[in-house]
Amino acid sequence: MQQKSIGASLTGLLRECVNRDAHKAHGILSGLLSKPNWNDDDFYDYTLSTHGIKSALASVSIMDLSTIAATLEQAGKARDEATIQSTTPNLLAGLTQLIEDTSSEVEKVFVGTGSNDLLFQQLTILGDACSRFNKKDARGALSELDKYEWSEDVTLLISNLNACMPHSEFEKMSELMQPYLAD
Fold first, then answer.
1. Which residue has the higher pLDDT, 149 or 36?
2. For residue 91, what is the enclosing H or E element?
3. Ramachandran region of residue 45, left (φ > 0), alpha (ψ -120 to 50) or beta?
4. 96, 26 in Cβ contact below 8 A?
5. pTM above 0.85, yes or no
6. Phi then psi for 173, rounded to 5 degrees?
């Protein structure tokens, strides 16, 4: 019996919104999960992100992932690092599948000719937004980058940049982008 895709019943704008929310949560959570020592802000961001994706998933009846997110939200509130470390990969795997299931061929562009130009263009816009402390423009540039498939190192960069957004860590974002903007 073939497994039904997670986002198969979603259409149009709803599909786009779920994809965007899943991308955002995946970026933030994977960025935090790779961070060794968490401070209060990290636990807050983790809890906020798991709460947000829990609600988004529940609103479209993806209850298995919503339940995992709810468990992780409680783990974030309780600072239960063991549960966070052991269970977050399950949520990330589900979000990855959801992202794949809700991505249209039109939205996805595979790394190839022109992708480096697009990356440079969006990172330049993002760098400018960071220098002006403009969160709206920074989100816009990251949102544009999230629409595309990238190499592993660029995907990690975008994930780390997304993880900086909740606290407007513009200086850190500029540092992360610098190697990609250098001549």
1. 36
2. helix 81-102
3. alpha
4. yes
5. no
6. -60, -45
